[in-house]
Amino acid sequence: MTTTTPHRRVIMRIDRLRALLAAGAAALAFAGCRPGTSRPDFQPGPSAPSGELDLPTDVATTRLAGALLNARIPVTQIRPGDGYLATPWFDTSGQIASGRPLGQDEALVRAWLRPGRPGHTDVVVEAVYRPVADPALAERDLERPLPPDHPVSVRLRQAMRTLADAVGGTAPQEPGAQQVAAGQSSRVRAKVTSRVRERAKADTTGAANKAVPADSTPAAKPDTLPTPRPTELRQPAARVDSMNRARSDSARPPVVVTEKPAEKPVTPTPKPVTPAPKPVTPTPAPAEQRAAPVYRIQIAATRTETEANDIVASLIRRGYRPQIDHEGRFYKVRLGTYPTFAAASAALGGIRSAIAPTAFVVRVP
Length: 365
Description:
Elements: H1 6-33, E1 50-53, H2 57-70, E2 77-79, E3 84-86, E4 90-91, E5 103-115, E6 121-130, E7 144-145, H3 151-167, E8 169-170, H4 177-211, H5 240-251, E9 294-302, H6 305-317, E10 322-327, E11 330-338, H7 341-354, E12 360-364
Antiparallel strand pairs: 1-6, 1-8, 2-3, 3-5, 4-5, 5-6, 6-7, 9-11, 9-12, 10-11
Helix pairs in contact: 2-3
């Protein structure tokens, strides 16, 4: 029977440790060949509502998916290991949309879940819509967040609030709650500022009263001016020459002034009134003199002017001169002005290959 020396035991342990390290390295290499996560390569928008759940990330992902399904939000992608879930495009009633989504009637919801405090998960959920279809932009660049009062946004916040009440955690605030809190804090600051100013004013007044003693006010000086006496008004003595002139004037006979009879008012003779000329109705131009219709190439149509202006700005940066025609409820972005349909069709091929494959010719009266 052979005995193992201590040196031999140490060598055996080192070989065993090397084998374990090699197996771990192989496992890491195999894991590196697989994608790290199945989440999208972009992050949620800054206005997406967020909250916290008192659950591990994988359990929180599954529970959040169930809460959204109960709120008529059709979740189809649920990945507990990655902390991510998403829906297809669906309408406000919860039915999956068909065709190209466009406008606020069709939405898409995504949720990112990340480990937070021990045993807690941070949740960020966004609901977006696509206001316009533009092949020149990426799909993420076309998405805009839904308004807070949209039916899908309201159901989303209610579902997160119900889940947070059931498992513990915090739900996203209602829209406008932060503005109310900011208004309350501003009013508190205004009250504190007014109190500080009143206290400073009272301190200044007290200091002024202490600086000037009560008996330091100078006494009023007695009135040293003489009291005015009443002056007797005497009639001035008449001059000699003026008296002689008065006597000579009185010796003359009085002059009688006869009043002239009042003149009768002269009534102006009314002038003949010339009748106003009758308005001349313009004669309609003949059919051959009217403006002929023109043709343009339509690129996109949006429901708001802001979205149309964004498309116009992108086309201007590429060297085009687009214009917006407001027709009904839509703002339509169009290019060019062609006298005939044939001329517009000739330019349509180049615009489809360079800008929008879905562009088409329209007639503008």
